[in-house]
Design goal:
Blueprint lengths: L2 H11 L2 H4 L3 H9 L5 E2 H5 L2 H6 L3 H8 L5 E3 L5 E4 L16 E3 L5 E3 L12 E2 L8 E7 L8 H12 L5 E4 L3 E7 L5 H10 L1 E3 L2 E7 L2 H28 L8 E2 L9 E3 L2 E3 L2 H14 L10 H9 L5 H5 L2 E8 L7 E7 L4 E4 L1 H11 L3
Antiparallel strand pairs: 1-3, 2-3, 4-5, 6-12, 7-9, 7-11, 8-9, 10-11, 13-14, 15-16, 16-17
Length: about 350
């Protein structure tokens, strides 16, 4: 398959002709803030899989296109200059219709070009850590929470391990799952917290030896909790977890913060759950965030009545998992699920 043929195929996927009938691609692009379609979706099209095209080949082919363009990180593609989408025309050729006997028939038009639903394995299975060092300017105080949120919001990265001391800290990513261009972007751009720019570099040599010597035990504890949190977060009985379809119609505002989509908000609370010590009162900003979250609980008044503080601990009925607890002034406590609250939040937003 030549570069020119690959380019023409991608241009076809993003053409008015195709997007006016391709409901899946039309939806993915319309839900993207900047009109991009992730290349991973194109790679899942049957025709592309049959051609055995790689992401690198697609990237190289698009560079010469006059109809489509790459994102800065070269993981997505969009119509040139974010050209507006054509109107989606739903016809009997791109939706399910019913025969006279009521049997649902999936019309074959375009079905061969639809990406298959993606199934992911446990991201902590055989987790091979790639350790990064993050450092703030002299005299600037930051917390691991701020770093966690900055990585998510600025780089769309969720790290299972983040720590920060007085002058610098570390976070970990899975080496096999972190593309080289992501590493380059992290180390070249760093992260910004408030008005301060924090530097990031890969931890190597003696510096890495010192990390394992001083923080290895803490790292192992956090990764173990992250694995438990992942299992609690929805791996089904069959051991697989399907990606949730991102239900983004607009930015989500929660606790005076704007989130890209609901999964980003879920990851914030999963991170808090994974990194918190059992039975230790949660401090700000987590306390007020959980108060806001409980506003979406079916029994919010009961959970918040007489509230003293929040903690994390083993689930009373499922000892292998952990959850949040609302601890009362009289010493009693009530467990609750952040995922159930977020589900109600989704419903209230019409997502």
């Amino acid at each position: 398959m030549s570069t020119e043929e690959i380019k023409r195929q991608v241009e076809y996927y993003l053409s008015d002709k195709n997007l006016s009938q391709d409901e899946f691609f039309h939806k993915q692009i319309s839900q993207s803030q900047d009109g991009y379609l992730q290349i991973q979706f194109i790679l899942k099209c049957n025709k592309v899989k049959q051609m055995k095209v790689t992401q690198e080949q697609i990237v190289e082919a698009i560079k010469t296109s006059t109809e489509v363009e790459l994102s800065q990180d070269q993981t997505s593609v969009r119509r040139l200059n974010n050209k507006p989408l054509p109107e989606l025309i739903i016809t009997q050729t791109n939706k399910k219709v019913k025969t006279n006997n009521g049997e649902a028939v999936a019309v074959q038009q375009q079905q061969d070009e639809k990406p298959q639903e993606e199934v992911i394995d446990n991201p902590y299975h055989n987790f091979e850590p790639l350790i990064f060092t993050v450092k703030a300017p002299a005299g600037v105080a930051v917390s691991w929470t701020q770093i966690t949120e900055a990585l998510m919001k600025q780089h769309n990265i969720s790290s299972p391990y983040v720590r920060y001391g007085k002058t610098e800290g570390n976070f970990a990513l899975s080496k096999p799952r972190t593309p080289e261009d992501n590493i380059v972007r992290l180390t070249s751009e760093g992260i910004k917290i408030g008005e301060h720019q924090l530097e990031i570099h890969v931890t190597n040599g003696e510096e890495l030896t010192q990390f394992w010597s001083h923080h290895g035990k803490h790292y192992e504890t956090i990764i173990k909790r992250a694995k438990e949190t992942f299992a609690h977060g929805g791996a089904g009985k069959g051991g697989n977890k399907k990606y949730e379809q991102r239900k983004q119609k607009k930015d989500i505002v929660f606790h005076n913060q704007k989130y890209r989509d609901i999964s980003q908000l879920k990851n914030i609370f999963k991170t808090i759950l994974a990194r918190s010590e059992n039975n230790t009162p949660l401090k700000e900003p987590y306390h007020s965030m959980l108060v806001s979250l409980l506003q979406y609980h079916d029994k919010k008044d009961q959970k918040l009545n007489g509230l003293k503080h929040f903690t994390v601990g083993q689930h009373p009925d499922h000892g292998e998992t952990r959850c949040f607890f609302a601890v009362k002034e009289d010493g009693s406590s009530e467990d609750f699920s952040s995922l159930k609250c977020i589900k109600n939040l989704e419903t209230s937003l019409g997502l």
